[in-house]
Each structure stands twice: as C-alpha cells, then as structure tokens.
Amino acid sequence: MNIELKLYASLSSYLPPGAKHHRVALDVAEGTTPAQLIDDMKLPKEACFLVLRNGVYLTPDERETRPIKEGETIAIWPPIAGG
Amino acid sequence: MAWAKKILRVNLTDGTCKNEPLNMDWADKYLGQRGLATKYFVEEVDPKVDPLSPKNKLIMTTGPLTGTCASTAGRYSVVTKGALTGAIACSNSGGFFGNEMKNAGYDMIIFEGKAKKPVYLFIDNDDVQLLDAGKIWGTSVWDTEDWIKEHHQDPMIRVASIGVSGEKGVKFACVVNDYHRAAGRSGVGTVMGSKNLKAVALRGTKGVQVKDYKSFMKAVDAGKAVLSGNAVTGEGLPAYGTQVLMNVINETGALPTRNHQTVQFEGAHAISAEAMAEPRKSDGKPNLVRNAACFACTIACGRISTIDRTHFTVAERPQYQVASGGLEYEAAWALGAATGVDDLDALTFANFICNEQGYDPISFGATVGAAMELYETGVIDKKATGGIELKFGNAKALTDLAEQCGKGEGFGAEIGLGSKLLCEKYGHPELSMSVKSQEFPAYDSRGIQGMGLAYATSNRGACHLRGYTVASEILGIPEKTDPLVADGKAGLVKAFQDATAAFDSAGICIFTSFAWSLEDVAPQIDAACEGGWSVDKLLEVGERVWNLERQFNNAAGFTAKDDNLPARLVKDAAKVGPAKGLTNQLDKMLPEYYELRGWTPDGVPTNETLNRLSL
Fold first, then answer.
1. Inter-chain contact B578–A54, Cβ cutoff 8 Å?
2. Residue B231 in domain
3. Predicted pLDDT of residue A82
C-alpha cells in the first residue's frame, strides 16, 4: 500500500534517502496505523507532537487505532508554535 | 512598585516636556501598557479625530513587569488612533527599547501636538530634550539609529524611530526599535511621522523596584522553569522560530495564497523554517544564521538571517550582505504565499527593506498580493504600475515595490495606501483582504474557523495577536479544538481575547502563553505590584480593556457592520485541503459572541456589562 510521509523540523533527519521537500513515498502493509508507522520509522514517539492525516489532526487515540489508507499522507511535527 | 509611577508628557507643538504622576487608581483597573495607555488615550482624545491630525496623540507605554528580570519582560507598546484603520491601535514590540524606557523612570510617554520642524526626543534618565532631527529626516531607520548613537557617542542608547515611509505617509508605517523589532501594525509609525517626530532615543539606568523582592524572584524562577521545561517554548520556538508554521498551516489547508484565492501554496516548502536552515548552493551556508532573544527573554524565537550574496537583490549592494532580523512567519507568508513568490532570498531582502524603511511587511505583502490580482485580471496594467510586470510569483516585482514603498515613490506609493484604499481606487474593493482596513495575517479563516471571528471582532482590524485561536485549533494549546467547525468558537475567541489583553498589559510577550497560563503570570505581577493581583483580577482587566477599546471604536463610528469578513471568505468555498467546500461561518459565531460579551445584537456593550466592568 502506497502512502506519503512528511517529517518536519527536528524530525526531518529521520527521513530515508530519496526524500524531497521533506516528503517521501512509502510502501507499507495494509492496516498500518500512524503509531506503527512512527515505530517502524524509529521516530521518537514523544517528539511526534502534531500528527496530521491529509491535513487533519489525529488524536493520540486515533494514531493508535485508525489504519492509514492507500494514498493518504501522514505529516508529523515535534512540539512547535508560532504567530 | 514595579510601575515607575511617572509619565512624561511631550507637547510637540509647544516643545515642552513635563513629568506627571501615574494615575494609580487607573493602574489598579488597567494594570499597564496596552490597558493603561488605552485608558489615558480614550480619556484624552476625541474618537472622531483624524489620525493624522495634531489632535491625535501617540503613547509609548511599558507594563509593570517591563524592565524586570521576569522572562520576556522587555515589551512596550505604541497606542494611538491608527492611520491605516481609524480604529484604536496598540502595536507591541520587543527588543531592548522598552526596558531602557522603564529604566529611565517612565511608565509611558504621551506625545501630543505636532512639531514645527522634525525633532527627536532624547532621554538620559532625568535629562529630557527635544532635539533637531534635520540631519536624520529623510533617512532610514537603520541610518537614524546609527546617527543618534554616533552623535551622542553612546552605543548603548536604545532608539525607536520611523523610516522614510512614516515621513511620507505610507499608511502601514511602523515604529522600529533596535534595528529590526517593530511596533508593526495599524500605521502607528504614520501617526508618529505626522507629528514630525523622527525618533525617541533613550538611556536609562535607574533600575526597576518590585514590591516583594524574594517573592518576586521565586515567582520569576518558577515561571522560567515552566518555559524551559515546555517543549514548545523550551525547544521548538528557539530552534525553529515562528517560521516552522509555514508547512504546518499549508498542510492544514489554511495558508492564504495569491490574495486568498486558494488555501495552499505549492512553494511553501521553499520559504519555510526548514528551507532557511538548508545550505545554499553558492556558499554552502544556510539563510538562517542563528536565533536571537529580546530583553530578558528565555525563549529566543527571533531569527537572524543573511541573503545569498549572488542573489539579484544584493549582488551589487554589499550593504545588504549582512546578518539582520527575520524572516518571521507572518512576514514570510505575506511576502511569499500572499504574492505567490517562493524565492526565499527575495523575501528576506524585502523583509530587510521593511525593517530599514519602517513599514509593516504583513500589510505590504498582502497589498502587493491584492495589486497582483488587479493586474492579472486586467484592472491595472504596466502604465499604472510604472512598467512593473505585477504577476503573481514575480520576485523582482516584489523587491522593486518594497524599495519604492519604503521611499513612498512610484507604484510603491500606491501600495502604501494599503489594500482597501488601493482596491477602492481601482473599483474593486472586494479584492481587499482586510477587516477595518487592516490586512489579514497568515491564516485563512475557511480552514481555521475561530480565526474568522477573531479577525472580524479584533479592535485594531484583522490581526492574529488579539486572539490567537490557532494555538488551540491547530497546535492543541492549551487544548485541541477542531479548526473546521464553528461550534464553541465564540467562547474560545472571547477567552483568548481577554487573556491576551491581560498579557499585553503586563509588559511580557504573548509567546509565553504557549506555556504559561494566567496562573503563572499572576504570582509574578502580584509580587511586583501592589493591588492583590489574582487570576480573576487579571481576567477582569483583560475583559475591561477589550470593552474599553470597543467603546472607543464605537464612538469613532464603527458598528457591527464592521465586524465582517470579505465576501471571498464567507461566500467562496476553499477549493483544496481539509477545508475544501467550507466557507467561514461568521454569521453563526458572531451573534453568540455578542451575547457572551454582554453586548447588544448591534455589538454595543450593555449598561449591565459596563457596570460590571466599572466602565
């Protein structure tokens, strides 16, 4: 199943080779949840502050229970703010 | 204590400078800075006054914590009737000027009248002089600050000044201090220019006394521990600055692009915090040099950057091959996504010019975006623009207009009208993306519903810093709410607005609120000041300040009809992203907001509300 992963700020260093503009296409198993993806990519879980699925915020519960679907984009940031 | 309990009143018409005691009854009700200066302003100025009339006044004001060792306690504000908006204006700045003013022994400086010739105010503690500014009138903020320090032979002098844009009447001119910190919005620098006041230069060494030193240090230490232990204020902001929001807001489908025609910008990655940190091809160095902190700040979110020396803007101009302030997120958005320009060095250059010549990059960039839409739809042509091909994405057009606007020349002078007057001039007022004549900052309210209400009801026109519900709706601070729904946003906006007014009246930076609640702030103020400063008292001050500002605007002629958004945001649905198909639902939120505020359906505070708030 093809998905897209985007990692920003301090999480950028976890992107695999071939990533461009902080995004990379991945082939993951059916039923993979965002939490499993975070584990698979060896991302520090505590640093995964903002997790978006197609731009929509996922609660910590949804990250554990809601499988990613074909073609979806998961974007992750560490704790950040601005304004 | 903490207050200096002294005001300096400068009559520019007469050339007199007099000290007055601070009204401590008002200090107890309005705390300081935004709140207390607004109280003085509304008591002394006719709401109908022409902002550029000598009868308008301009107040530079500190808070009680300004100049203390509380984290971020270097803030000051400029309060006046805004040249851009005709509404109450309060523009807040960091840097080091506010600290110096407080240490010179002044809570605020009230400027009234108009000088016959350009002057600057020089303060060395109790020595106060109005001096001839003939040699610096017509020069930039940067040259003015250099000249004053050299002339007085003191590099430690802190300066707040206007550039040529403020002299020439650019509607969104700033007051810039410390070279690149600015009281930036609403045209407070334009008002300063109308008074022939070029600069205020300060040296203050008196110190700031607090009520209970031991309790104060304990409260300050506890506050700093909260900031350093918080992942946002302790790690995220110092490392990436505000610019880290560029990709976040783009991903959430709330990045206003090409004059709000769409909500996602394909070039966002190229102008983001991440891009600022990437080595460039020419010299292997990144745009970002380092972060920077204002006085007493333990967050240090500021950015110091350089432009690629081979870039067309600076290749032949070594004076700009330096490290200076920016880019911050709001400026990067306005200069970039709003104009469709994805050239990071062009944005950095335009931002340098905004600082150098003293005008607001948000209103400038947004107005250029509106002009680009006028150009691309054939309303204006090269004859109107002086030969500039004003297409979206044209970096050279952006930087040329930045220089023209800074000097009030060419089509840049028309950009200096702001988007409302510009679009009205060319018969398309609907293309001005503004509220109360002030351009939106970097969040599209179709994708962040609460911000639509925050913009519409902001007392100084469209602004993110009057009620930053982005913190909740996007970032989950203090708790996550859904940005795509309007339900519950009236209460959220009111809560943010009132708390922000309290923070802004204290002398500290609103960025502390990413980690601090008023529970963290109250002990610091209470240890510094007489008056029994509890969370409830601070919230009451915040609500009182908000209503006082509203009363001034209502008396100035604003009505509920001005609590509105451009048709594009309430009629044209977002075409892409999570908000696809959504417009802003202001019509649902506004009546509930008025009710929660204790206002009539026409947006007027009821007598009951005024009595409750002792107004």
1. yes
2. no
3. 85
